[in-house]
Structures are given as C-alpha cells and as structure tokens.
Amino acid sequence: VNLPVADVAAARRFYTGLGLSINEDFSDEQVACVTVSDTIVVMLLDHARFADFAPHGIADTRSATEVLLGLSATSRAEVDRWADRAAALGGTSL
Q: How many C-beta atoms lie closer than 10 Å to residue 89's C-beta?
C-alpha cells in the first residue's frame, strides 16, 4: 500500500508508536517503509514523491475518502489496543 502523507517524520513516529517497524533499506526523508507483517508493507510518501507515481492529484481527505483498508486481529482486545495507541498518538490525519 502506498499512502501520501503531509509529514513523513510525523507519520514515521505515529507508526512506530503503534509498535510497527521501519525498513530503512527502503526509507529516506521522503519515504518511510512501514512493516506491518511478513506480507504487508505500507509505503508512506511525502506529497511530492507520491505525485511521481500518481499524477492525478491527492484526495483531500477532509472531503473525500482516499482509501479503506482492513487488517485482521487475533481478538477484540488486540483491536482495542491498536485503537487506544492510535488515539494516544493523536492520529487520524497523517
């Protein structure tokens, strides 16, 4: 999954705050490669870098849905832990 973000450093802090790791081999100041699992990687790209791949513009997520993703969890408690961490990190608008 490739996602545009306004601030790669802030997005990196958010995702590592959730307990995910960054693959530095595929990361730099414009991109952070977040490892979710052995089979899921999220590429966080600053807007300029994202535009290199998607020249039709970036959705304004205040007025449009950019993407919907679903991840599996082993229990409702695990989902609640992720949601609590995300809320504590202040994050839905990265």
A: 16
